Amino acid sequence: MQENPFGRGAATGTARLGHGGLTLGRATTGLLPAAVLAALAAVSGCSRAAVPEPETVPLVERIGELSELSRTDLVTLREELARLEEEKALPRQLTEALPPPDENLAAVFVNLFPPDRLPGILAEGEQYVSAVRGPEADPAALRQARAFRERFEPQRQAVRRALRRPKCVFPIRFTAGYAADLGFLDQAAAALRLEQLYALQAVAEGKAGEAADSVIVQLRLAAALASSKHPLVRFAAARHRAAALDVLQEVVLSEPLRRDDVLRVGNELRRQIAVWPADADAWIGFRALGLHALETAKRGRLYDILTDEEVAEFQEHYDMKALVEQVRKNADADALYFVRAMARVIEISALPFPRRRPELERLAAEWKTALAGETPPFVACRVLLPQVPPGHEMQARDRA
Fold first, then answer.
1. Which letter does DSSP use for residue 374 in this model?
2. Burial of 285 (0-12, 13-18, 19+ CB in 10 A)
3. Does 266 lie in the same domain as 199?
4. Are the beta carbons of 324 and 314 closer than 8 angstroms?
5. In a structure prediction context, what are the per-residue pLDDT tens digits for the chain, which is 400 residues long?
């Protein structure tokens, strides 16, 4: 599923499906040798690993140490980076140690499904989910969907058992920036697809209680994903939560729920609302990814953080060799602008969205003005910050 290891979010095919208009899924022109990819995979598994020796650390992870930005002559940038270190918000500080697998829900998604079969499982599962919706679902489609789901019943049950584990820490290497291996997202998506099928099949058979159980499982899996500070994971959680609520609506319209089923689903929703992770968390993670991108640009590797579409567009408007050099020379000021802009983004994340929207519009106007300046913060205002407003809109829909 990994299209390109150095592109934003390219380590998972799920990222390429889009998240409310975000361009966080990046399939780009970045180049890493096979040995580096193997090393990256080795440090991103779902088990506690020894800290690799410096000479074995992949380039993409060394970039995550922000060594070039940290050596800046720009005093204000050094101060901002020191503040982020105090807040434990640098990429290396957001990379969490993993609990033992038998205590960690996230560990169930390590090769839960054969990675080479995941695209087919996801596509076939989506086809069956569409086919069995509604009271007029074709009996033949229901039989085929059941046969498909039952092939993966051990995996579905494994995920349900894993929900009883006390912790959930996903193996996300923020030090790898947008190259972090997010393959678990596709694994989780396949597990959720099976639960959607189970719920829809249960309600078609008049088993509304079992359908309600399945909806609760889907909501809990979405909540587990939402606990991450990685924006791609957080936005994937929003998409899966919306899908679970769509299934719930289908269940309610097809088969009246008993009072105790309604209470169980309602209690789960109230519990999730009570412990809803702050919207700011996703933007703290986004800021860390952005700093990784800016460190990459300062090393003269602008192409590595651009999508194919951006490269094609920029080639029409810029001398790319000159742009790479301009961005490299201005990277410190670019990073300072980005960090300060993100401080404001994070601050307004606590506001209700109706009050947040005009603030975002004002910020977007400022970013556009800055981009038109003589030495613009190009990476901040052209590559990174345009992703912020649609991300906030997705968060608003998730809470609605």
1. S
2. buried
3. yes
4. no
5. 333 323 454 334 333 222 222 233 343 333 333 333 333 333 333 433 445 455 688 999 999 999 999 999 999 999 999 999 999 999 999 999 999 999 999 999 999 999 999 999 999 999 999 998 877 778 898 899 999 999 999 999 999 999 999 999 999 999 999 999 999 999 999 999 999 999 999 998 889 999 999 999 999 999 999 999 999 999 999 999 999 999 999 888 887 888 999 999 999 999 999 999 999 999 999 999 999 999 999 999 999 999 999 999 999 999 999 999 999 999 999 999 999 999 999 999 999 999 999 999 999 999 999 999 999 999 999 999 999 999 999 999 998 7
Phi, psi for 274 (deg, rounded to 5)? -65, -30
1 within some domain: no
DSSP 379-394: IIIIIIGGGHHHHHHH
Do 258 and 134 fall within a single domain?
yes
**Domain identity same for 322 and 193:** no
Give the residue numbers spanning the domain of 142: 101-168+183-277
| Residue among 193, 218, 210, 211 at smallest CA distance from 250 | 211
**How many CB atoms are located within 10 Å of the residue 77 CB?**
21
Within its chain, how far is the Cα of 257 from the centroid? Answer: 33
> What's the one-letter identity of residue 22?
L
Quote the number of domains for the chain.
2
Number of H helices, E strands in the chain: 19, 0
Residue 134 in tokens: 């509604």
Q: In sequence order, which residues have a C-beta less than 8 Å from that of residue 180 and are 6 or more positions away?
A: 11, 44, 172, 173, 174, 230
The answer as to whether 2 is a domain residue is: no
Count Cα neighbours of 343 within 13 Å in the Cβ-side half-sphere. Answer: 10
pLDDT in tens, 5-26: 234 543 343 332 222 222 333 4
CB atoms within 10 A of CB 204: 21
